[in-house]
Fold this sequence. Notes:
Elements: H1 6-10, E1 13-14, E2 20-21, H2 23-26, E3 30-35, H3 42-53, H4 55-60, E4 63-69, H5 73-82, E5 88-91, H6 96-100, E6 104-109, E7 112-117, E8 120-125, E9 130-135, H7 142-151
Parallel strand pairs: 3-4, 4-5
Antiparallel strand pairs: 1-2, 3-8, 6-7, 8-9
Amino acid sequence: MVKIDDKVWQHRNQLTNGSERSLQELVKDKLVVFFYPRANTPGCTTESKEFSEQQKAFEALNCTVVGVSMDGLKKQQNFKNKYQMTIELIADVEGKLCEAFDVIKEKKMYGKTFMGIERSTFVLNHQGEILYEWRKVKVNGHVDAVLTEVKS
């Protein structure tokens, strides 16, 4: 089983509720960490809202859900408030979590190549081991698939 680096596991991140917490502090039995390219874009909004809508189902399984992008804290807070999300979002402005989970990839849009976050989701246990991972995520049906794996 792949384990994330202890420095990353214990690194304190800015959350939209104004606190700073490490992934280690956020995990219960399991922790879902989903990475999305940018707040307020259609796919990212849909995915984040769906995780938020299913938060109680995840909590019933003693699982915390947190979303991560490289947007600044204020943008993340506005995004969360605009859509009345109940999950916490992390402002990974320096990209430390993104790098640790290897989600920064070369992307192409409108004929231009650039580096950006590849939509990805990870389920970790309380020791920081990755139990499940999804890369190049398609939003439709994804949250239900993650919930199914967390239940197993």
